[in-house]
Each structure stands twice: as C-alpha cells, then as structure tokens.
Amino acid sequence: MTKNIYEYKDASDWYVAEWGKSASYSEFERVPAEASEILDRLESILAEEELGLPLNITVIRYGSAFRFLTFLLDILNQETG
Fold it and tell me: Residues near 67 by Cβ (< 8 Å), separated by ≥ 6?
C-alpha cells in the first residue's frame, strides 16, 4: 500500500501529515491550542456526514488558521475526491 505523505512549509507554518487508517495529532511545544481546535471541529463536521479523517498530523510551526485549514481541506479533497 502506498502511503500519502503531505507537507506544507513556509516562514510561519510547517505541517506534515500522512493519510492512513487511523488518526493522531502531535505538535511541537509552542503551537497554540487553536491548531488542535481547528482539527477537532473539522473531525466533528466530517463525523456528522459519516466521513472520517484518518490523518496522522504533526504541527511543527503554526502561524495561520487559514493556512492550516486550507492544508487539511486540500488533503481531504485529494484523498476523497
């Protein structure tokens, strides 16, 4: 099985994710709680639609809620079409 690995990196944001069968979230020390809250809200929305978000994600640097949400939605779009 081919694993799909995604990464976004710029001066203020850096995320690495892997689409798989389960979900996990980790972050580096100085990442605000807002990042995990965005992920939790997206997972709740998808659960209501009976969709999942099997994404292992690590947030290394976080500077933009918009950029993080765009990263997550781009992955979801690529994986579910």
Answer: 8, 10, 13
